[in-house]
Structures are given as structure tokens and as C-alpha cells.
Amino acid sequence: MTSSASPLVIVGMSGGVDSSVAAHLLLQQGYRVEGLFMSNWEEDEDGYCTAADDFQDARKVCSQLGISLHKVSFAKEYRDRVFEHFLSEYRAGRTPNPDVLCNREIKFGVCFDFARRLGADLFATGHYARVLHEPVPRLLRGLDPGKDQSYFLHAMPAAALARTLFPVGELQKDEVRRIARQLALPTHDKKDSTGICFIGERPFAEFLSRYLPAQPGEIRSIDGELLGQHSGLMYYTLGQRQGLGIGGKSNHAEEPWFVASKDLQRNQLIVVQGHDHPAMQQIALNPVELSWIAGAPPAARFTCTAKSRYRQADQHCTVIIGANNTARVEFDITQRAITPGQYVVFYDGDVCLGGGVIDSTMTDIRA
Question: Strand 217-221 vs strand 268-273: parallel, antiparallel, or unpaired?
Fold first, then answer.
């Protein structure tokens, strides 16, 4: 039973199964619970964004659980703090990850502050991660390794982390689905959302071309041979194989071609043959705009594991802290197609230490 003395937790309700079960678990634990649905994108000319349907699902779940649901729009903040950065990174020839900024600036920034103004003692979401609150807040991986989302949460403000709960972070995804089915929640069999709302399931190139003019250019081999034409550097990422349209060159082996780099000044896409070509092997990277969960790095030089992309297995490395919130990350073994604009995130076992934006890389001269 809850009482007026119980802490009030406001749950970020996305209209998905994870936040639905998170709200249920918090009620079971004796908290007073209210839901908060936020919308971050107002343009929906072709119906790809599912925000309206998601809100109706969140409303049905909250009604079934007997909790109130608030609704708020952060579309302006999202455009100013996340989307404009997303576009500027593509203009610079990089490949951004807007989910990290969305968590820092929106979900655990303005949305967290809004929840506090509504009277929340604590804020909760359906993320697969965990928090240890004593003696200082620490961010831990979710127990389901296939769903862990600590990578996207590494830049959370410490003040928000101290007042945040991740109820499903202790569970496997299958268990979350089972609980939702048992409760007959309307979201129990809802497909997991992928990507970000403002892109949705629409073709990426089509969406991006609405905001950034495409500038076609040359595709050249690493030796300078002209191989074809690209439709715009922003449409390609390092290590990409599909969509190059340069297969079957008579004077080359039959190995597939991969994107090795982008020459922004010449507007050229540089490609190589072979999945493990030396030009795509990096041994170090330099991150900027570092964020540390504890407020500072563990030491000026330390060893840990890191991910330079979300689905990557942990890679052993040495981190050397530099000036102006930068660092150098030296890996024990060669990494393939590290991509500037993405994030490198550091771990000590299950503890997420923090991370930063990948600014540049060093090719492995031993490869």
C-alpha cells in the first residue's frame, strides 16, 4: 500500500512495454507513481513518427495501472539542443549519435527538471541500466547484456542520476514481456522502438535531404583511382559495404568494397577492398567533450574497457587524460572502422565510468 508519505516517482512513459512495466514495479515497491509522456518532434508530414499512437498507449497503460499521466512537449528544446547538433555533425562529415544528447539534454535534462516541478522526489524510465546510489551515484550496466543501455546514458548529469530509478534494469527483457503479458498491459506485445522518432522507419537519405542539400561527388580508391560517384558524403559511414554501387571492376579482385574515409575538402569518398583492410584498422582514438559519472576521471592515466560503438564487445584499453577535456585512448588490439562523431564509453567491470565524442583516430601502422 502506498501512502502520502511515500516518495513520488514520475515515470517517463514512452508508450512502450519497458516503461509500462517500470511503472508497475514501482507501484509494487510502494511508491506513489505518476506518468509523464514527452513529445520531442512536431513535424510529421508523412506519418512516420509514432508519437500520437505512443501517447495513446501510455494513456491506456496509466489508466489500467490507476495512475495519472502528464503530457509535455520539448520539441523546441530538442531541435535546439539535439537536432541542430545532429545536422552540424553531418555537415562536418561525421556520424553523430543523437540518443546520447537526447538523454543528457532532454530526458534527464529538461524533462527531469519538469518532473521535479511537478513534485517528483524521484524520476524513473524504462532504460536497461542500474544505479547504485550509495555512497555516491554510480551507473551500472543493465543485467540483460543484450539490452544494456548504459552506453547511451554515460553523459547523464550527476544530479539527475542521484534521483533516478531504472526498475527494469534488474530484469531480462523476456521477464519484462512476461510481466506485461501477465498484467494484460496493452503494450505487452508492442514491437521495440528502433532509431529516433524524427526519422522513424522512413528512408534515412530521404529524411536527411530535407535539411541538408546533397552534394554528389567522386568515389576513389585509396590509391586515387576513380571508381564511381557517391550521392553525398553524409549518406555513408566508415566501414559501410552496402550501397556503394562499385562492384565488379574488371581490374580488381572480387572482394567487396568498404568505406575507409571521407575527404570533406575534395568531397570524395575513399574506399578499399576487403573487410579487414589496413586502412580501416585503428589502434587509438582521441575523444573530446568528456563526461564522467563521478565528476572526474579515475586517474590521469588508467586502464579499463571501452566501446566505440553500441553493439561492440568490451575492448581493453589505456586512457590518457589530456588538456581541455580531451584524452587519448590506446587499445590493446586493433579496432575496425572507428567512426568520428560516435561515442567511446568507458567501463570498469559493470560500472560505467563515462565517455566522450570520438574526434579523430590513429590507423594501426603495424597492420
Answer: parallel
Closest CA to 65 of 39, 37, 38, 28: 28
Per-residue model confidence as pLDDT tens digits over 342-359: 999 999 999 999 999 999
Q: What is the mean pLDDT of residues 173-200?
A: 85
Contact at 8 Å (CB) between 352 and 154? yes
Three cell numbers, residue 321: 587524460
Q: Any idea which residues carry the catalytic annotation? A: 102, 197
pLDDT digits (tens, 9 = 90+) for 40-70: 887 665 556 677 889 999 999 999 999 999 9
List phi, psi (to 5°) of 130: -135, 155
Site of grid cell 552540424: 88
Given a cut of 60, whether residue 326 has pLDDT beyond it is: yes
- Eight-state DSSP code of residue 231: S
Element housing 273 (H / E)? strand 268-273
The three-point CA angle 159-157-57 to 5° equals 95
Cα 150 from Cα 140, distance rounded (Å)? 7
